[in-house]
Structures are given as C-alpha cells and as structure tokens.
Specification:
By secondary structure, the protein is α+β, with helices and mostly antiparallel strands. It is 52% helix and 19% strand. The chain contains nine helices and 14 strands. A hairpin with a 6-residue loop joins strand 13 and strand 14. Helix 7 packs parallel to helix 8. The chain is rod-shaped. The two termini are 51 Å apart.
C-alpha cells in the first residue's frame, strides 16, 4: 500500500483548520450582516410607526387616522419593498389600514418590557415581512400601530455586507493557502536534499552524509551516519576475513601443488595418473582462492576519487595474458576497440575483463571465435566479450551472475564465481552487466556498461 506523502499529511492537517476558520468567518459575517441590516431597517420601520402615530386624532371620542390620499401614497410607496400599516384599537379592532396585519398575543408582554415598541417576523399575502409595533395611549385608550414591509432591501443589504466582509477574507484564505503551500514546500526542501544526497551515491560510498537540515531532522541524519559507519565496519570486517582466509590458504595450496607436481615427475605411470587427479583438484582450489581474493577486492569499499581509465588500454593489457590460452585451443581471439574512457580502478577492470575472457574461452569449442569490443555511446562506456559457443539460455541469463551458480548440465570446471565478480566490479563503478545472445558469433555476449567520461588532454 502506497504511503501518503509528508506534504499531503501536513496539508491535510492544515487545510481543515483553515476551512473551519472560513466557515466560522462566513457564519460570523452573516450574523453581523443580518444584525446590522435588521437594526438599520427596524429603526426606519419604527420611524414609520411614529409618523403614523403622530397623525392619530380623537374624533367623536374615537381614535382616527385622517390621512389624505396623497399622504397615504407617500407612506406606502417604496421602490423595492411593499409597505403595509394597520391601526388597531384597544380590543384589537382595525381602525385603519391592512386587515391582515396583526400582532401575535405573545408579543404583548414584550411590548410592555420594551416600553411600547416591538419587532417580529410574519407572513402577509404569501410574502415574508418584518413588522414594527408601537403602542400609544390616546385619550385614555391604548392604540396599537403596526408597520410592515417585505425584506427585499434587507436581504440586499445583508448580501452586500457579506460580500464586503467575505471577499477580503477569501483573498486572505487564498494568500494563506499559498503561504502554507510554499512554506511546507520550503520546509521539506532539506528532506529533498537529503534524498538527492543518498540517491546520488554508489553502493560503495559509505562516507557520512553532509547535508544542512533543520534541528528536527538532525537526529535522522545522525542515525543514518551512524548506520553507515556500522555498515562500513561490517563490510570491512567481512572483506578482511575473506582476504585473510584466502591469503592464508594460498601458501599451503601452492606448497601442495608443488609437491604433487614433483611427485608426478618421480612416480610410476599408474601412480602418476592418480596424482594428476590430485593436481587438478589442487589447481582448481588455487583458482577458487584467487577468485575469492578478487571477489573480496570487488566488494563495495569507501568511495574515493578514481582516476580516468581507457577501456582500450585495459583490453590491450589483459589480452597479453590470455592470448597463449587462446592459441593453445586454436581459438581466434579478436579485438574491435574504439576510444572509451571512464573513472575507475584499472586493476579491478582488468579483473573484470579477465573473468569475462576466462568464461568465454572455457565455453568456446576449439577452432571457435572470441571477440572483445569496447566503445562509448549515449554517455555510456561499454565493454563486451562475444563467443561462438552454445550461448546462455534465456532463463539462465540472470542466474549466471549469482555466486557459485552453474547452469544445469554444464561440463565446465569453473567454480561459479567469475561472473559474480564481474557483476560486483561493474556495480562498484556505477555500471551493470547483462548476458545476451551474440548476433555476430551466435554464442553468448556479456556486455558491461559504465558512466562514460570525456577523455582529458593527457589521456
């Protein structure tokens, strides 16, 4: 299961909080806008009740509202809303105005507490309205004046106030998101630098990590460096053990081989034939020890600045020691060399090529052909050894690089370490090696490739 990125985890923690703040801000803005609009228009609506109350007169001991048609038109005219009014007597009877405009019974105690004024929401003619109530004593009678209007202007004012408050808040949120995004990105940049530092290393570079990181990440870098130190000590101990063991074995094996050779020269034919089997086993053991030494040298070691190496020069140097074996087996050992330069250890590269040639000459029948090639292409330096043997089966091409592995039915007297050494040396130089079929010779082709280096003037 793919793990979420640290950037996503941080944003997932921050964004809900910012969204909650936005919602809280929107709710607050709506409440402030609604309250402000309500207060403003309630005062205007109450002024209407005051104006109506000022026009009330007592006629024949009854309150009346003597308004001219022009005055009524001015009172009820509004560009956006519909305005209604009603004047009710002490018993709730309508003295003038809209019959449907009434006051709920629960409003009476509140009118008393609010010194004769009260506001409430209602519905009239299928529309929501806001109503202002004013009670006034007139000639000993309590008269109730109600003024109501629809909510068009109020809602418009609420929207304007909300937009006026939310737009800056939205801009602030967007700016905050940008700041958070770039802040998280900037805060994680040391981790990216640490990743690049580790990714750019070869498996042989176990030197301490030198990256400037924040205080919170410093313990991680410290633990990585301590792990690298422990790994370096472990690998060094392993290499030293293998190298020391091989060195200790070489002397008695060489003595054994010399004694068996001397015994073969001095023994009778029947005894000599038995001793030759012992000599062959001693020679194979000597070769195995030499391979173990090579493998120990090819194991990852602390990184160091490697000199520039010409692969053509490596081939020319190694070929001298393998030409006699090729001549003895009547194998045509040919070369196709092009300039190719890289940084590396020339001794290890010679060991790599020597194992490839040993492998090719062992599996090529007498009278066959082996071709060594090198060159550079697409930023890679390459070295290949092709032969006219029976080749390597497709299912075995990855397995042949494993230690001590030999293909089923193989009649070779090898020990299965040669190609493992080749792979380790290639990896130490930042390269790789593959086995494939040879298009030219029909046998196997072992191709090693490395990061190329432009030749210097001295080269």
């Amino acid at each position: 299961m793919k793990q979420a990125s640290l950037r996503f985890l941080l944003l997932r923690q921050l964004l809900p909080a910012m969204l909650a703040l936005l919602l809280a801000g929107a709710a607050t803005a709506y409440w402030v806008a609604w309250r402000s609009a309500t207060k403003a228009y309630d005062r205007a609506l109450f002024d209407t009740t005051l104006a109506i109350a000022d026009q009330l007169r007592i006629v024949d001991e009854k309150p009346q509202l003597p308004l001219t048609p022009q005055a009524r038109a001015v009172l009820l005219t509004d560009k956006f809303d519909e305005i209604f009014y009603a004047v009710r007597g002490p018993d709730g009877e309508v003295l003038d105005g809209e019959v449907g405009l009434s006051m709920p019974a629960s409003a009476q105690p509140r009118i008393v507490n609010n010194e004769g004024r009260y506001y409430f929401d209602d519905w009239l003619k299928g529309q929501p309205i806001r109503v202002a109530v004013l009670q006034k004593e007139l000639a000993g009678s309590m008269v109730t004046v109600l003024a109501g209007e629809t909510l068009v202007k109020r809602n418009a004012l609420v929207r304007e106030i909300i937009l006026g408050m939310l737009l800056p808040e939205l801009l602030l949120i967007l700016v905050s998101l940008g700041v958070v995004w770039f802040g998280v990105r900037s805060g994680l940049r040391p981790l990216s630098a640490l990743r690049q530092e580790l990714a750019g290393r070869s498996q042989s570079d176990l030197s301490p990590v030198q990256v400037t990181v924040p205080e919170e990440i410093e313990p991680v870098v410290t633990e990585i460096n301590e792990l690298l130190q422990r790994l370096q000590r472990s690998l060094a101990s392993q290499r030293n053990f293998v190298s020391d063991a091989a060195h200790q074995l070489r002397t008695p094996i060489a003595a054994l081989q010399a004694q068996v050779e001397a015994a073969c020269n001095e023994s009778a034919p029947d005894t000599r034939q038995k001793l030759e089997g012992v000599l062959t086993a001693a020679q194979r053991l000597s070769h195995l020890v030499a391979q173990m030494l090579s493998l120990a040298r090819a194991e990852p070691s602390p990184a160091q600045t490697q000199p520039e190496v010409s692969l053509a020069a490596v081939v020319q140097k190694v070929a001298e020691s393998w030409l006699p074996l090729a001549f003895s087996r009547q194998i045509d050992l040919g070369f196709d060399l092009a300039p190719a330069f890289m940084h590396g250890n020339s001794l290890l590269l010679e060991e790599l090529l020597g194992n490839l040639l040993n492998n090719a000459l062992r599996y090529t029948p007498e009278g066959g052909t082996v071709t060594v090639s090198c060159g550079a292409e697409d930023g890679r330096a390459w070295l290949s050894v092709e032969d006219s043997g029976k080749g390597i089966a497709a299912g075995e091409r990855d397995k042949v690089f494993e230690r001590f592995y030999q293909a089923p039915g193989s009649l070779s007297d090898g020990n299965g370490l040669g190609l493992a050494i080749v792979r380790e040396i290639a990896r130490q130089h930042g390269g790789n090696v593959i086995a494939q079929a040879s298009e030219k010779l029909g046998g196997a082709c072992l191709l090693a490739s490395f990061p190329a280096q432009r030749p210097t003037t001295a080269a």
